[in-house]
Amino acid sequence: MSTLEVQNLVKRYDGRSIVDHVSFRIEDGEFFVLLGPSGSGKTTVLRIICGLEQPDEGRVLLGGEDITRLSPRQRNVGMVFQDYGLYPSMDVYGNIAYGLENRRLPKDEIQRRVLEAAEKLQLTPLLRRSIDTLSGGEQQRVALARILARDANVFLYDEPLANLDARLRHQARRDVLAVHRLRGVPSLYVTHDQSEALALADRLAIMAAGRLQQVGSPNELLEHPANLFVARFLGNPPMNLLEGTLVNEAGRYLCQLGALSLPLDAAWQHVLARHPEAAIIVGLRPREIVPPWELEKEAEAGLSLWRGPARALAVEALIGEVEVTLELQTAQQPAPCLVAVWPEPEELSALPEEGAVLQIGLDPQRLLLFDPRSERALQAE
User: Which of 175, 184, 181 is nearest to 154 (CA)?
Assistant: First the structure.
């Protein structure tokens, strides 16, 4: 059984922490994605794990063994870089075999591994082709075949699809997952592309400014972001975040948005009673704003919705969905704006026109609350 664990990794440059006490554990057979914007420290974490950089503090454990001070060659790590690291002077066979030859494996063992990896990634007809005659997708498969042949204890991926066009990325993601499932060892994948992260990850971790913001399954992070950074960063479109004021009316809490009052679910009662300030930030997921043509159906289902007027500022048709930018009708200036994503109605005439005022619905049980001072999510009881 192989697990990968990083414990309190710290890396400083010029006195500034690029990686700031980062810890996580990847289980055997788990595909783990490290997601974050450029400069968040995610690639530095990867380079520390594979031995290209040394941490100022912390440890890296592989299968329970401390490998922090081992050289890259001693770690038996398979890595795919953004530029693939292929040798144009060699053919496909030579590139796949190169790492095995450096480890001085017997020639028949090298041949067996290369041919097996090439077959699994549909590279057999290309084995004697020069690297510079291959397409980007084919080169990416050669890089994957190289780590597959190596039989590494952990697979590391540093933005491996960044150089591929959109048409090739879907197949490339399938190839990456195929390699992972064939070996079943821990895989760590670094990317800034959340669509890749959500498509690939068993669990993902979001990094910003050198720190881990949250770790969990894609659904956990989408449904329950730990803080405002995660709420703003994850989701397409991301969560709506509105500044409001808490009002206690006879023991029942409301969130005041200008002239609008949103009732808050009773589950927030004890948490808000301990909240020291009136200021609050309300989170609304775009797909949980109820469109006008669904209001009666939701009411018949027994849901108690808040209803209110909103003006459609922009309407964009998607595939089977429509994205609508809404301006809440309130005396507050500037008026709060929301982005809603709605399933396309059965009757296209029900689609709102730009400038039209319509009724929308919000389920108080689906609202999220954040502390504007700490930026942490509040937890309902």
Answer: 184
Give the dihedral sign, CA 67/71/76/82: positive
| Rounded-to-integer distance, Cα 340 and Cα 180, Å | 36
Q: How far apart are CA 237 and CA 13, in angstroms?
A: 34
pTM for the predicted model, two decimal places? 0.88
Cβ atoms 86, 96 nearer than 8 A: no
Helix (H, G, I), strand (E, B) or coil at 332: coil
Distance of CA 300 to the CA centre of its chain: 36
Extract the runs of DSSP E, i.e. beta strands, from 182-320.
187-191, 203-208, 211-216, 240-249, 252-257, 260-263, 279-284, 306-317
Residue 188's alpha-carbon distances to 63, 120, 261, in angstroms, are: 15, 21, 45
| Cα distance between residue 242 and residue 370, in whole Å | 10
286-325: pLDDT as tens digits = 999 999 888 877 666 656 788 888 999 999 988 889 999 9
Per-residue pLDDT tens over the stretch 74-114:
888 888 887 777 888 889 999 999 888 888 888 999 999 99
SS3 category, 145: helix
Distance (Å, whole) CA 118 – CA 299: 57
Whole-Å CA distances, 310 to 42, 70, 362: 40, 60, 12
Task: Say which residues have a Cβ less than 8 Å from residue 320's Cβ, sequence separation at least 6.
Answer: 343, 344
Dihedral angle over CA of 244, 247, 252, 257, nearest 10 = -30
- Which residues is 80 bridged to in the sheet? 157
Q: CA quadruple 205, 208, 209, 213: dihedral positive or negative?
A: negative
**Contact by Cβ (8 Å): 223, 281:** no
Respond yes or no on whether the N-terminal peptide bond of residue 237 is cis (omega within 30° of 0): yes
* Rounded Cα distance, 18 and 132, in Å: 36
Cα separations in angstroms, 261 against 196, 284, 337: 38, 15, 15
